[in-house]
Amino acid sequence: MTIKHSHTDLFDVPAVLGHQRHLAHGVNTHGVMGAGVAKQFARRYPQLLPAYRAYINHCTRYDIQLPGDWFRFEAGTDVIHNLFSQDAPGPTAQLEWLELSLSHAMNSCEPDVTIHLPWIGAGIGGLTRQEVARTFLSVASDYPDVHLHVHTHPAEEIDEHAVKILFG
């Protein structure tokens, strides 16, 4: 397991020839991608929002619990891991849900895959980056062959305490 951090835009990660690019972000259980990183995903991948809503409807119909679940969406060579880390839009993210959904995503990956992700749940979701860093570290330790690369957007300040948690 490796965890990397960079002060770069998540969407600027280059695709590697012959490999899928894995990106992850947090979503809510209400089918809304109206703000933050989720809104950027919805804009960049027009088929994502309808597929995400169809998945929610399927889970609702069959009484499948969404908090802590994960929805994988493929678009060309990109794999989008939608992590159900919060109930409703706004500051409703839960560390337990983030932990479960990230575990599902990492468990689905082949060895040596790197998942690129923002500080899921921090900011709009209401969690702190320090809490999120501890969760990322805890989950990643269970998947030694899958790697995480955490991105802080260039327009945002780096949280040195959170980065220190990631790297000791």
UniProtKB/TrEMBL annotation:
It comes from the Bacteria. InterPro entries: ADP-ribose_metab_enzymes (IPR050892), Macro_dom (IPR002589), Macro_dom-like (IPR043472). Transmembrane segments: none annotated. Residues 1-168 form the Macro domain. GO terms for biological process: peptidyl-glutamate ADP-deribosylation. Pfam families: Macro. It catalyses: an N-(ADP-alpha-D-ribosyl)-thymidine in DNA + H2O = a thymidine in DNA + ADP-D-ribose. This is O-acetyl-ADP-ribose deacetylase (Regulator of RNase III). It comes from Yimella lutea.
